[in-house]
Write a structure and sequence with these properties.
The strands form two sheets. Strands 1, 2, 3, 4, 5, 6, 7, 8, 9 and 12 form a ten-stranded mixed beta sheet that branches. The chain has a three-stranded antiparallel beta sheet with strand order 10-11-13. Strand 4 and strand 5 (127-130) form a beta hairpin. By secondary structure, it is an alpha/beta fold. It is built from twelve helices and 13 strands. It binds pyridoxal-5'-phosphate (PLP). Pyridoxal-5'-phosphate binds next to helix 3 and helix 4.
């Protein structure tokens, strides 16, 4: 049996809506599905408006640029993330300040961020002046890792204290909520950015979106992604981009959102199954559950917490030999070539953690047989290597 990590689930009205694009000739960057997708995203985010883009990376970049962040400035980003997060900062012209994560929920360590700000910056009209580089810290970009909520109140109060903008990388977190069930756009942050890449729970083939309670910001972003055009005549007021999503992509996205509740139910079941495997073994745990708000469990799997570093690679080989698509997890950003010289806090938690994270197959279309197969082999390996008393 071969079990992939995460593949799109396209059994809804995707094909029907794609036919509609072709019949109507609306296959490009305008069309009814674009508006409908934006409305669905805004509704799920608790905002008036959302603007779709051609990728999640671009959504993050546009949120920063829409907030006026750019050259000569800094954005705080966790090191435990996919490289798109810091890339979006660099694309905006700004630079990253990498921060370690917490051991509890794997999100940016706000206490450490505060310490770093206190010791290396001083007040500045636009944020905080980073004394060693002369750059101005303008924003913080927390990541909703695995689609899990984070301490939004903590982020918002830190940002308010130091005059920073807040852009959330919610790439795989559509449908998650903050404290008290608040939708992500209503958590007090400036902007929430999603990705609809093929491995996310909701895909549009490729794509992204920015949602914000600040409708003017969404308007500015919409202007930036549509070549900065002022009206039907070819008047443009800014050097902008062609970063729009097409109606074809949005058609897939609309069909996907219609099935979001079922997708999230299946993700939860998968998460629970891997949690059961973890519970059998003293040195395994599942992926963290957020202390506030909810997770959509985009990825779930196992984490090894024991003493034998060599077991990570052995577990991966064991599963791959049995057809399970188990890959290394994201290599942290401070270890990546383009970011080796970036400003960074010490990284003890990220360095200890990242190679011990095992994302296991979690497609929303995964069958019970496939899930049983993955669970059986994972259990077999850890029974043999982690001192379980079960056999
Ligand atoms: C997928 C992802 C992105 C990037 O989205 P793309 O649509 O692939 O550009 C950014 N951040 C995180 C955490 C992601 O998982």
């Amino acid at each position: 049996m071969r079990v992939p990590l995460a593949v799109p689930n396209l059994d809804g009205r995707e094909a029907e809506y794609l036919q509609e694009c072709i019949r109507s000739t609306f296959v490009s960057t305008a069309g009814p599905f674009v508006s409908r997708f934006e409305e669905q995203i805004a509704e799920l985010s608790g905002t008036e408006r959302a603007s779709v883009t051609c990728s999640g990376t671009v959504a993050l970049q546009m949120a920063l640029e829409g907030l006026g962040v750019g050259s000569g400035e800094l954005v705080m980003v966790p090191s435990l993330t996919f490289i798109a997060t810091p890339n979006s900062v660099r694309h905006s012209g700004a630079d990253v300040w990498l921060v370690d994560c917490t051991a509890d929920d794997w999100t940016i360590d706000l206490g450490l961020a505060r310490e770093a700000i206190e010791s290396e910056t001083e007040p500045h009209p636009d944020g905080r002046l980073h004394r060693p580089t002369g750059k101005v810290l303008r924003a913080i970009m927390p990541v909703m890792i695995m689609g899990a909520s984070l301490d939004f109140d903590g982020v918002v109060s830190l940002a308010a204290e130091y005059g920073l903008k807040t852009v959330v990388d919610a790439a795989a977190a559509i449908g998650a909520t903050g404290a008290g069930g608040r939708p992500l756009g209503a958590t007090g942050v400036d902007a929430v950015c999603y990705s609809f890449n093929g491995n996310k729970t909701v895909t549009s083939g490729g794509g992204g979106a920015v949602a914000s309670l600040d409708s003017d910001l969404v308007g500015r972003i919409n202007h930036l992604v549509t070549t900065g055009r002022l009206g039907p005549a070819y008047d443009h007021d800014v050097v902008a981009y062609n970063f729009r999503m097409t109606n074809v992509e949005a058609a897939i996205g609309v069909a996907q959102i219609e099935r979001l509740p079922a997708f999230l139910r299946r993700k939860r079941e998968v998460y629970d199954r891997y949690g059961e495997v973890a519970a059998r073994h003293p040195h395994l745990s599942g992926f963290p559950t957020p202390t506030v708000g909810t997770s959509v469990h985009w990825f779930s799997g196992l984490v090894y917490t024991g003493p034998d570093d060599a077991l990570s690679e052995r577990f991966r080989s064991f599963m791959v030999e049995r057809g399970v698509d188990l890959r290394p997890f994201w290599k942290p950003i401070h270890l990546q070539l383009p970011y080796r010289d970036a400003i960074a806090t010490p990284m003890p938690v990220t360095e200890q953690l990242w190679d011990r994270i095992f994302p296991l197959p979690c497609s929303t279309g995964i069958t019970d047989d496939e899930l049983d197969y993955v669970v059986a082999h994972a259990t077999e390996f850890w029974d043999r290597h982690d001192g379980s008393s079960d056999d």
